[in-house]
Description:
This protein has helices at residues 34-41, 45-48, 66-77, 91-103, 116-128, 149-154, 192-203, 225-230, 241-251, 275-296, 322-339, 343-358, 365-380, and strands at residues 3-11, 54-60, 86-89, 134-138, 142-144, 169-175, 210-213, 220-224, 256-266. It is α/β, with parallel strands linked by helices. Strands 1, 2, 3, 4, 5, 6, 7, 8 and 9 form a nine-stranded mixed sheet that branches. Helix 10 (275-296) runs parallel beside helix 12.
Amino acid sequence: MKKCVVVPTYWGPIDAGEEIVFDHPTALNDEGTLKTLLDNLLTFKEITSREVPVRIVGIANKKDIREEVETILEKYLQPYESQMDIELYSYKKLSAKYEELEARGIEKELLEPDSYSQIRNICLIAALETGSDIGIFLDDDEILMDENFFDIASDGIYERADDNGIIYGKVGYYEQDRPSYANFWELKHWPKDVTFNETFEMLIHPKSRYKPSMVGLGGNMVITKEMMKAICFDPLVNRGEDMDYVLDARFRGFRFYFDNKLRIKHLPPEKKTPMWKKSREDIYRFLFMRDKYNSSITFDKFQKVDFREMLPYPGVFLADDLEERIFEHNKQLGLKHLSENDKRGFEECMENAKIPFVYEKREDASELYYKCLEEWWKITEGL
């Protein structure tokens, strides 16, 4: 079974006019976290023997620095080219791909590097173009912990799980130092981290290695070529694209399984993106994801998914009380900013609190995504 590794890496300034909000982009004059991962990969014979190719998807958070970022990454990766099968998949590759799609009369929107979802789609294409049977998707702030990681990654693929479903995709978990989540602005109305951890604690139970899952982390995913060709990330989802992808796959008859042996070490740098900004991305994410789920109930091209499968996370944010949760959470978060004399943070939280009152529901969300799938099938035909 041929495998490949794909790693997206994000570069550019933070809160200085960035056009895409990334959690922790690497500054142009910084080494960042990618080197640690690449050095870690060099400890695996599958990598040094070139059995498992590595593809780095390099993205800038501002359009006017794209060429500079690509040049930086070309130099960054050069020392590794003699030690592994590694290639940069960035703007030059994308330009060639766009020309190919244009010649075939296919839109390029799904592969525009303007959001997390579209960048993940680029990762899928990078994996498919290696001819691999499975893509192993990591993030640039991680390292592998197990000597037999690549065997673990392919374990169970194409086999039947205990629920009689075929494993076309797997998700694992992160090991990392976790802070206390007992924050007054989160606990009651926005228990995102609490319910997230509750869900993973249920999945990681040792009773069964493979459990059907409605959650997934984009930095520790294994996806077969069949699923990659059939399911794209939704470009209308700017954040939480990994969780949305799991739901999208389920709509089309694919099920992800949580593998309690598939783990990585997460070493995230300090996050500098303001909380109000990440909260805003989450607001639109959950509102749209709820629209997609609700519209799927009557959409005949999607399988029906029992809401209880998504509890506690992300289901707690897809219920009818989402508007109230958004409003109350941002009131509390705004008070936190105010207590720190952060006037802008307070004002932005008040803007967040308004969103439920002006947001226009997308009752056609499932239909819109299906149209994306139809374009995706054209893009991946023959890959």
